[in-house]
Amino acid sequence: MTRVAIAGLGAIGRVLARKLADGMPGLVLTCAAVRDRNKAQTWLDTQHIICPLVEPEEFPAHADLAIECAPAAALERICRPILESGKTVMVLSAGALLQCPELITLAKANGGQIIVPTGALLGLDAVTAAAEGNIHSVRMTTRKPPNGLVGAPYLEANSISVEGLTEPKRVFSGTAREAAAGFPANVNVAAALGLAGIGVDRTTIEIWADPAVERNCHSIEVDADSANFTLTIENIPSENPRTGRITALSALAALRKLHAPLRIGT
Q1: Tell me: the pLDDT tens digits for 14-52?
Q2: Catalytic option among 48, 62, 218, 259
Q3: How far apart are CA 195 and CA 206, in angstroms?
Q4: Which of 2, 83, 154, 261 is the most buried (most CB within 10 A)?
Q5: How many helices (H) and strands (E) does the chain have?
Q6: Does the active-site annotation cover 48?
Q7: pLDDT in tens, 245-255
Q8: Shared-domain flag, residues 133 and 236
């Protein structure tokens, strides 16, 4: 059995904890780390889930794999102990990973592994395959309901308001690296796309606040020597408008692959 720890019991972490508690082949939930223990314990009790609450530094003693689904600022504290122990961490805050390249070095030095699931983006298998050849360009356009972008550091630093919009407003244009830094809770997909393909500095993205959309919409155009393709997805937001429901399901699918007798996809 693979023992699993969850860091964060928000919109994503709760879905994962519920599924793991209900039973997934080869996996068992052994602990979790949270900011607000009282709130988390109350939720666990109402769900009848037995899951000790510990500090991230204690993960290696309880788990073989930790899933990071917490605020981006907590990434290093969550990942470092488990990677130093030569174990595995699943990172959903892919954008924050760009700010901590030493974690990749740490994983390599200790025989650990960092898994970044597909998340809210489709087609990473195709991008990863194309990267084995030569990719000429990757362009991404993201459209989100304005309330899904409120509070982004880039908007606040540049005094960009998305309140009361009556028509689409482009709020960012630049590289995936810049987008991940400016919108750490909103476009982890851009970081994942860059890491899967030609790098975060060559992957470009536009972000639009669009009052006409109710879903988080992503469109990707890839020009490569093996294929040209366009990918479009509309994600239904979770209870947290910054995160699509499919993000948690993607993490579950990645977990299921760990012990699946038949594994589909790259």
Answers
A1: 999 999 999 999 999 999 999 999 999 999 999 999 999
A2: 218
A3: 17
A4: 83
A5: 11, 10
A6: no
A7: 888 999 999 99
A8: yes
